[in-house]
Amino acid sequence: MQSLKDRTYAIEEAFLSPFACKSRDEHVRERKESPCEMRTEFQRDRDRIIYCKAFRRLKNKTQVFFSPEGDHYVTRLTHTLDVAQIARSISRALSLNEDLTEAIALGHDLGHTPFGHSGERILNKLNPQGFMHNVQSVRVVEVLEKDGNGLNLTREVRDGILNHKKSGNPATLEGKCVSIADRIAYINHDLDDAVRAGILKYSDVPKEIRNVLGNSSRERINTAISSVYRHSAGKNCVEMEEEVERASEALRSFMFERVYLSENSKKEEEKAERMLTAMYGYFINSPENLPLTFKNLIEKYGKERAVSDYLSSMTDRYAVYTFNNIFIPSGWTFIDEK
Fold first, then answer.
1. pLDDT 10s digit of each residue in the chain, 338 long?
2. What gap in Å lies between CA 324 and CA 276, rounded to an integer?
């Protein structure tokens, strides 16, 4: 009887594009492991990411709006799921490896800081070695998870995570699917959140952008995915058509001007900066107060990196809790004198 994994290999050989990364090929891990009888290597990577602690913490990390009170604002976890869905849709349309695509997508933001990209900019300024969330995401899967042992993912998944930013150059088309899906996802759900928060109206988006991309999230995402398919099917690339790419970049620029770098965002970032700066200085000067897992990293990686590892691992709520615990005096309990 053919094994489940062999059946997956056969399906890939029959149906995937010649440009796809096949599961049967040899895939390098930093540490050798015995293969799984049922799952391909990329399926194993996907499962490891889903069950790791950093993935669970994404549910309480900011996407754009700090610690939002409403139930329907996007978090780093829902963003990750959006990216995975869009990336898989593109991967399926182009006959690429959906398991590899999904593993990269689910892991691409594991190293993100509390307070969204504001937190990333702040830690990059504080740490002399710098801080970038894509590099930190790789560090999470290589070093920080499992008490310093990492998840031991395949090289293709780690490469896709590292290179998911627009400036990156993923080695696989599956990695390129995640990179373009990330941009499609965030400009659309961040626009929805901005409207939900009363910062924008959909009609504020310039008409020339709406005429190309559409007037709703559903229309814009469908336009983007369809454009990638029309331009890239049967080719060794994952790209939008020029007109749709230009409109998408114009929408991204609009979001930076009106939302990401707005006066309201800057005020909130100032609060986050004061909080993270204070905690960074505290743990640099008192590294003995770091949790043991992070304290053990100091000898090999230095205090700056260990402190950045700890702060970037925090959710928004835990960062506020830790700050209060360190810097806000506890109230006294008074006993009535009789």
1. 678 888 999 999 999 999 999 999 989 999 999 999 899 999 999 999 999 999 999 998 886 655 555 555 778 999 999 999 999 999 999 999 999 999 999 999 999 999 988 899 999 999 999 999 999 999 999 999 998 899 999 999 999 999 999 999 999 999 999 999 999 999 998 898 888 888 899 999 999 999 999 999 999 999 999 999 999 999 999 999 999 999 999 999 999 888 887 776 677 788 889 999 999 999 999 999 999 999 999 999 999 999 999 999 999 999 999 999 999 987 665 565 54
2. 12
User: What is the C-alpha separation between 252 and 216, in angstroms, rounded?
Assistant: 15
Q: Give, for 263, the enclosing helix (H) or strand (E).
A: helix 263-285
Q: Which of 278-281's residues contact partners 24+ apart within 8 Å by CB, and which partners?
A: 278/323, 278/326, 278/327, 279/311, 279/319, 279/322, 279/323, 279/326, 280/123, 280/126, 280/127, 280/307, 280/308, 280/311
pTM reported for the whole predicted model: 0.93
Q: What distances in angstroms separate CA 62 from CA 114, 125, 225, 297, 333, one per listed residue?
A: 6, 19, 26, 26, 35
Distance CA 253, CA 187 (A): 10
